[in-house]
Design goal:
Shape: globular
Mean pLDDT: 86
Radius of gyration: 17 Å
Strand order of the largest sheet: 2-1-4-3-5-10
Number of strands: 10
Strand content: 15-25%
Order of helices and strands: EEEEEHHEEEEHEH
Structural class: alpha+beta
Low-confidence stretches: none
Length: 185
Amino acid sequence: MEKVRRILVHVCKDAAPPCKTHFLQSVVGQFADGADEVEVNWKLEKNQFILYRGGGGAIPLKRPAFCPIKHLSVTEAAAIPLDVQQRGVDVGVAVLLQSANQRVLLTRRVENLCIFPNVWVPPGGHIEPDETLLDAGLRELREETGLKLEPQEVSPKMLGLWEVRQTDRQADRQAGRQADRQAGR
């Protein structure tokens, strides 16, 4: 069995086994042709983030109207390297930490990143193999802000899912490391 390095989105439709979503496939589009929002259920099982329809407790899955995957032409898709086309869609978490006085914690992305530079965002990032969403969120909160919270100290709630693609992740990592060096971290 292949070693899992990333947690990827899988879609389960019509009682079929979950199938990995490829990078060029719109997750929302697999459930609602042309729409930018759909209600789905989810589970994190065997290092697969599985989305499906049916049952109670559905949450919104949204994509921006400007989603590049939604508007990708056949020519543009063909120009994307095959390894990127087939790599899958990574799952990440964002932590909305609200204080007792109703304030929300945000962090600012460094200005030299390729994707969303200098933008205020909630702490968050990737999910590592065998982590729960809560574990990943608390780890990312600690890594990005230094705040260490224990699972019993928080009231986690899944608010929704957001579909977005980042295509130049390696350039962002290099820019982030450079910013860390300049800041003396």
